[in-house]
Amino acid sequence: MPAFLLINPLSGSYSESLRNKLLTELESAGITPEVMTITGPEDARRVCALIEDSVENPLILVAGGDGTINAVINALAPGRSTLGILPVGTANVLAHELGIGSVEAAIECISAGKSRPLAVGLLENDAGLSRRFVLMAGIGLDGGIVHGVRPLEKRFLKKGAYLLSALRILLKWPRGRFLVVADGCRLECHSVIICNGARYGGDLKLVPEADISVPLLDLFCITSENRRSYLGIIASELSGRSGERNDVKRLRASRITVGGDRPIQLDGDGCGRAPVKIGVLANFAEILTP
Prior knowledge:
Blueprint (H helix, E strand, L loop, with lengths): L2 E5 L8 H13 L5 E4 L3 H14 L4 E6 L1 H8 L8 E6 L5 H6 L4 H10 L2 E10 L5 E4 L2 E4 L1 H7 L3 H7 L2 H12 L6 E5 L2 E5 L1 E5 L3 E3 L2 E2 L11 E6 L4 H13 L8 E6 L2 E3 L4 E4 L2 E5 L2 E13 L2
Parallel strand pairs: 1-2, 1-3, 3-4, 4-18
Antiparallel strand pairs: 5-6, 5-18, 7-10, 7-16, 8-9, 8-15, 10-13, 11-12, 13-14, 15-18, 16-17
Helix pairs in contact: 2-3, 6-8
């Protein structure tokens, strides 16, 4: 299978020495990929189109963070590629989801060649927007925090930039709920996180039963609009007792509509505002796993 290494030099832990290390270790594992650079969605579309024009079923190795992986997912044709993840981003949530804790572990995984199906979420609106996501879609407070992250803060503070944005949100707290309909079940929410994978960030499993290979989405719905409730939810999640709360509802669905006009984030990057429709694409690609 022809291999391609897509590197984002703007990713959180990227350096030239890391690039050289990746190539050396891949070659030692018997993999000599063609190297291509991507820095955002436009690059990803151009590069992936070139790859798919030349190879029917490529092996695509992505060296970047979750945003880079999202850009690649949105550039690929469904059902043709096998993906390998080299975690060199800020949070690397997908790598954690797959059980890949380091670049060295990622190369071992790629060398072994074991894969499983990858399902991805699909978000659309009436204005023609169509975007895929691998990890999650956050609508409401979660989306507002991501929209509020300032590029310079993210560059220098990494994950701390999200905390600063959250503190700014606390000073201008959004009120009111919006309607979520999940496979016919109707619920008024203040925020909702629609999960394709179990992890929300790092080792925090927001929806432990979620599985990126299963074409179903898990909803973490927050019904209270009270600041104190959110603090309680955070404490419950960190202690593993979230199932005891009456201000959190969990649903599983394949077709979801979200009303209102709240901000949205997909895989950690802002993506417009509601209303939207969300579904899932089964067998979008194969993904290499330990």
